[in-house]
Amino acid sequence: MPENFFGHKNGVPLLHVWLQNNPIECLPSTILDHPYLTFLPSRNTFKVCGAASTVTLELSAPRISENGGFTRVTATMNHTSSAATTVTISASVQLPASASASDYRLSENKILTIPAGQTSSTGTVTITAVDNDIYGPPEKWITVSGTRSGDADNPADVLLTIEDDDNPMVHLVLDRTSIEEAGGVAEVTAELDAISEEETTVSLSFSPSPSPLVYRLDGDRTLTIAAGEQTSTDRVTITAVDNDVVSPDQTITIGGFARNTRGVTDPAAVVLTITDDDLASLRAPASVVVSEGSSEGLPVVLSSQPTAPVTVTVTGHATTDLTLNPVALIFTPTNWNVAQNVILTAAEDEGFTNDQVALTLTASGGGYVGVTHLVAVTITDNDVAAITAPASAIVPEGGTKDLPVALSSQPTGTVTVTVTGHAGTDLTMNPVALTFTSTNWNAEQRIVLTAAEDEDLTDDVVGLTLTASGGGYTGVRHAVAVTITDNGLAPLSVSIHDLTRREDAKAAQLRVELNRPSDKVVMVQYATSDGTAEAPSDYVSSQGFVVFGRNATKGVISVGIVDDAVAEGEEQLTVTLSKPRNAIIQRAVGMLTIVDDDGGVTLRVEDGVESAEVIRFTVHLSAPSSEPVSVSYRTRDGTAKAGEDYRAVAGMLEFLPGAVAATIAVPLLRDDLDWRGETFSVHLEQSTHAQIANAVAVATIREAGSVTRNVLAAYTARFVRTSSVHVVEALQERVQSRVDASVCAAGDRADLMRLWQTVSNWRPSLGELLGGCHVSRSTGGFGAD
Asked: CA 152, 156, 160: angle at the middle one, nearest 5?
């Protein structure tokens, strides 16, 4: 049991506790934290039950100055611990953004240790501010952190403030650090490295002071930087004075004294160099132009009086087209400022480009040893890069002509000359391009111009363009006007002729002819193509060549014909010429017509048959056809009137392959005047793939019933007025339809008889009958009785 006794603290009873060898695992934190209990040193250590210990970081100085200020970091724990506690210290910049780790330095030892049973750390961790000459910001905030060993919570961060002890610094600024003696200008301005809230003035000093022989100042020697600004609004101008004194370069040191009510650092001095232009030098042009084949003077003089004679030697012209006279000049202390000439002479060469020669003038003696001067000499060439060729040439039609080509001057490399302008003309080139080198540029090369024969009888003019590229000739052109003289002959042409052959001829020879003899071999390709005749059922497909020997004009193309037993009418195919050689095609397509030898197909129409108020006309083919047959037809009035007695029809009748009959139907119309003997006809007009053998058929409308005497009388009167007109029109149509016939066919006679029987009161004369039988006009015909 512990031994306890009471005392007093501020009048309050106080209990002191000694912990002896007692197997106590831990003490509650409520006991340890009791304000009236004090635990005296014990032989044993113990743990706190139910609460973790807390470590706190402390700074010996929360604010330190930049100029050597420092702070020590310590750590305390609110309870003792049976084990030692370590805390690793680190630091980082919090604000402002311009601050960095270079603003402070952390000691090498960064670990604090709180021994077991104690609450304060041992050892030392130091943070020292780094002194610099940079003004601002006025304060920097550094966060100090600790990392505790084990799994216990880390201590809270603490803030260290570093105070800046620098003033803003003034800098003098030269817009250039070196100027030339001959009027060179430099400007001086002042700048602060940080913004100040007060106006800053800078008084400038110059060493050496301005002098009439060295430099002068423009503007006040005081520069002002307004509050809140970093650059002076005014400036001081330094202008170098040109003189004729040979002297070393001058240096001017510019310093300043700065004033500011809050403090400011004076600027560092800056140096301006004035380069002297009165050094010993050779005065001569930097460049000279000499025309090829002519001379030009190069004046030379010294810049200042030498101490002894000076010799100026010219070099750099060896192995060039330039010669010098003299190659050396001598200047004395008395004539140093009198110009002397070196005569530069440029020789002719074969090139056409300008030459460049770099001359070096080197002085020796009299204080001018090693002084040099460079002169760039340009020799302008008097040669022109050109293509040498005739401006015109004459080529006979069907002939050739050589066109000589060369270059006017030696090229710098390979030159290619290309000929254009002949495309789409009768002129051809061989070759179309020539190549010249620096060794054969003046040797003529030839282009062979060949003029083809054309269809017209006039001369042709072709404009050729010779264009060069490479070797310094790029873009050089030469025009040649070529006249092709016509030979007065029509162009050599080939034509094919049409031909008609019967099917049983077995073959057809189509004529192919030249329009005139030629001393050249002419060849043309041919090929057959289907028309209404088709290979291989109607003919034998063929293709090949027709060749005309020298002075030959006639040739043939043979096409095999298939003799079949099919009645099919006339059929056609084409033979086409193409790809002629040494001639043109005048007529390219020949038509071969094959006439059928199987009698052909004919059409005939039978008279109409009335049934159920419709009259039907049957049209017959003489034989089946291998291809569709069509025929157009139309009704025509007789005594029957369209629209009163029947409905007029017209159209096209079609026969499919193999069909031999088709019907034309004509609807009938009934009225009170219908009676026996009314007639009309159907006429076949035009047909494809068949001949019309019988073109007219007649239909009679049967009596529908008995008629009264009055009706019959009225109709008779109408018939008398109109029948003669219809009969004459019908006969006239027959006469006109076959004006070249010379015989009366049996079918024609039958047609006439049917008309005659239908119109019983018609008594035709012999002339009318023969006219209806198509008497030939060549016989004169017969007149009517």
From this structure: 145
Which of 280, 281, 276, 279 shows the shortest CA–CA distance to 213? 276
Q: Which fold has domain 170-275?
A: Immunoglobulin-like (2.60.40)
- Per-residue pLDDT, averaged over 127-148, amounts to 82
The CB density around residue 673, as the number of other CB atoms within 10 Å, is: 14
* CA-angle at 169, arms to 163 and 173, nearest 5°: 155
CATH entry, 285-380, from 2.60.40.10, 3.50.20.20, 1.20.1050.10, 3.30.70.360? 2.60.40.10
Choosing among 2.60.120.430, 2.60.40.2030, 3.40.50.1820, 3.30.1370.60, the CATH entry for 601-707 is: 2.60.40.2030
Q: Where are the beta strands (DSSP E) in 497-613?
A: 499-502, 507-514, 522-530, 543-548, 554-560, 571-581, 584-587, 589-595, 602-605, 609-611
Domain ranges within the chain, ordered by starting residue: 1-51, 170-275, 285-380, 387-485, 493-593, 601-707, 708-785
Burial of 111 (0-12, 13-18, 19+ CB in 10 A): middle
Residue 766 has pLDDT above 70, yes or no: no
pLDDT of residue 12: 46
Identify the CATH class of 493-593.
mainly beta
Here the tokens at position 591 are 């038509």
Report the C-alpha gap between 146 and 100 in whole angstroms.
Answer: 19
Are the C-beta atoms of 576 and 495 separated by less than 8 Å? no
pLDDT band at 181 (very low <50, low <70, confident <90, very high): confident
In this model, does residue 466 exceed pLDDT 70? yes
CB atoms within 10 A of CB 342: 23
Assigned CATH for 387-485:
2.60.40.10
pLDDT tens across 74-107, in order?
A: 999 988 888 888 999 999 988 887 778 888 889 8
Write the DSSP symbol of residue 715.
H
Task: Give me the phi and psi of 716, to 5 degrees please.
Answer: -60, -40
Helix (H) or strand (E) holding 70: strand 70-77
From residue 702, give the alpha-carbon distance in Å to each of 101, 493, 592, 710: 135, 70, 52, 20
